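Hi C.,

You asked whether I'd gotten around to modeling the 164-residue construct. I have! Everything is below, sequence then structure, no commentary in between.
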Amino acid sequence: MGDTCCHHHDDGPPSAEAVSGALAAADARLTSEGERMTPARLRVLELLLAAGEPVKAYDLIARFGEDGQPAKPPTVYRALEFLERKGLAHRIASISAYVACTEGGPAHAAAFLICDCCGATAEVNAPLAGALDRAAQVAGYDIVRTTVEAHGRCPACRDAAEAA
C-alpha cells in the first residue's frame, strides 16, 4: 500500500466476536433477500472482516484454505463479485484491494479515506452522493454503484510527520 510506517498505530484487526457477529448479520440479510451464503462467499467475507484493512485478491487466494491450501482464483473472484454486488465488500481501485463494507447495504455510495503512509482506510458516507445522483438523473443515467477514493494521511501518520 503506502510506505512502511515507523510509528505506532493503536487500531488492530477486529475481535473474533466482531467478525462472527458481522458474518451472522450478513448471512441473515442474504437469507432474507433469498440469497445463499455459500462456503466460498462466507470464507472470503470472513477473511476480509478479520483483516480489518484492504486485502489484495491474491492474498485472499493464498489465505483461503483453512488447511493452508490456496483457493482456485475463480472461486475467490466469483465470491468477491457477489459480495460487492450485495454491498458486503468494496473494491478500492486505486490500491487494487478489497475491503469488507462497514457502512451500509447494497445501495449506498461508498467513500474511502486512504492513508498513503500506512495504507489504513476508513469507509465514510459519500458526502456528494445525492448531488451525483441528481446529476446522473438529469443526464439520463442510472447509477448502480458509486465509490469515492480520497488519499492523504491518517491521524497517526499525520501526527508522526508533524512531530518529525
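If it helps when you're writing up: DSSP finds six helices and five strands in the chain.

Thanks,
B.
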